[in-house]
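Regression test case RT-17, inverse folding.

Input:
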């Protein structure tokens, strides 16, 4: 795994306080164990938006299971807005 991806995952874990963000939305407290991509990391998506965007911590949520992982995904019609948000974050960093 690239250093960039590992750094972004670490930020994702720290932001979440190591807790599952999906369970937290439902008032449950479970320790997370994986970073989920809101815009999924599919080949065509990475080709279209770039890996820096897709693996940025703003596109990641820390989750506890594959079930919560799939719930972190956003619908395709929200991709463009999310990408614009992430670009602005990258410019501010
Ligand atoms: Zn969970």
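Golden output:
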């Amino acid at each position: 795994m690239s250093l960039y991806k590992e750094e972004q995952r670490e930020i994702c874990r720290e932001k979440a306080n190591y807790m599952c963000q999906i369970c937290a939305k439902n008032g449950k407290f479970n320790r997370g164990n994986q970073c989920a991509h809101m815009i999924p990391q599919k080949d065509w998506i990475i080709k279209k938006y770039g890996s820096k965007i897709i693996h940025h911590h703003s596109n990641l949520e820390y989750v506890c299971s594959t079930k919560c992982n799939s719930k972190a995904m956003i619908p395709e019609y929200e991709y463009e807005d999310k990408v614009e948000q992430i670009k602005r974050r990258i410019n501010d960093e």
